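User: Hello, beginner here. Can you help me understand these amino acid letters and fold codes? It all follows right here:
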Amino acid sequence: MNKALISFLLFFISVIPAIACDVCQRNQPKLLQDISHGTGPQAESDYYIIGVSVIIVLLTLVYSLKYLLKPGEQNPKHIKNIILNQHSES
């Protein structure tokens, strides 16, 4: 478990953000300079859409990790237990 967590953290720490080129840097809003290429958000509503999308992605990540690491299923007839018990009996 600790090795997986350390690997996970090292992966996200080692990700280096892309640096925008000079033209894109001039054309981007101050918030996104040095981060993204191309045209930036065209209206204020684009920031709200991006914000909601980020929240959805983060919630999905948190819940997927939560239920992957500690599913909490206690029913002995659950398929997980059937598979684990068959594997340990062999």
Notes: The chain is about 60% helix and 0% strand.
